[in-house]
Amino acid sequence: MTLLILGLIIFLGTHSINMLAHDWRGRMVGKLGLLPWKGVYALVAVVGFVLLVKGYGEARLDPTFLWYPPVWTKHLAALLTLPAFILLFGSAIPGNRLSVKLGHPQVLGVKVWATAHLICNGTLADVLLFGGFLVWAIANFAISRRRDRAEGVVREHKGAARDIATIAIGLIAWAVFAFYLHRVLIGISPMG
């Protein structure tokens, strides 16, 4: 469990720099340069990710159950991850309606993904992992939206083609992950 917690602190901490220390991040980018900053950032984030994956894997070998979710929660989680994937790609394709309306659809997608996984998993490791991501996403979304309003950020919708591409890519990615990659990477088949 220690590796999971350490990994979460490093990974989510790295991803909280812009949210909690926006000005400091700007100074560091100015001091180091954008590419070196991104390199250090990526390296630390990868270390955190590896630790949380290893820690979560170890915790799954000897789980501490807090509750036993009913089977139907697995189906609900699979359904909820569909909009989560679409939201995740809402940030990757600029000018789509989700990006314009929500500002930070990827962070909202993490909220939906984490909630879906909390619904259908009942171990302490699940609560730490998915609960940690949920708390991070709630804070990040609120702070980022507040900063956008304060800075007068305006996003422009660039046509229905971007909306369709966002939805299509999100649907395809969800299907590939739900029907194949989740089983290969995580060892659990959400679709039965």
Structure characterization notes:
With 192 residues, the protein is mainly α. The chain has nine helices and no strands. Helix 5 packs across helix 9. The chain is globular.
Keywords:
globular; mainly alpha; 2 domains; single chain; 192 residues
Helix content estimate: over 70%
Q: What is the average of the pLDDT values?
A: 95
What structural class results from the helix and strand content? Answer: mainly alpha
Largest sheet: none
Distance between the termini: 28 Å
Strands, count: 0
Q: How would you spell out the order of helices and strands?
A: HHHHHHHHH
Rounded to the nearest angstrom, the radius of gyration is 18 Å
Topology:
Layout: H1 2-14, H2 17-20, H3 22-32, H4 34-61, H5 72-90, H6 97-102, H7 105-120, H8 124-151, H9 160-186
Compact overview of the structure:
The chain is mostly helical and 192 residues long. The chain has helices at residues 2-14, 17-20, 22-32, 34-61, 72-90, 97-102, 105-120, 124-151, 160-186.
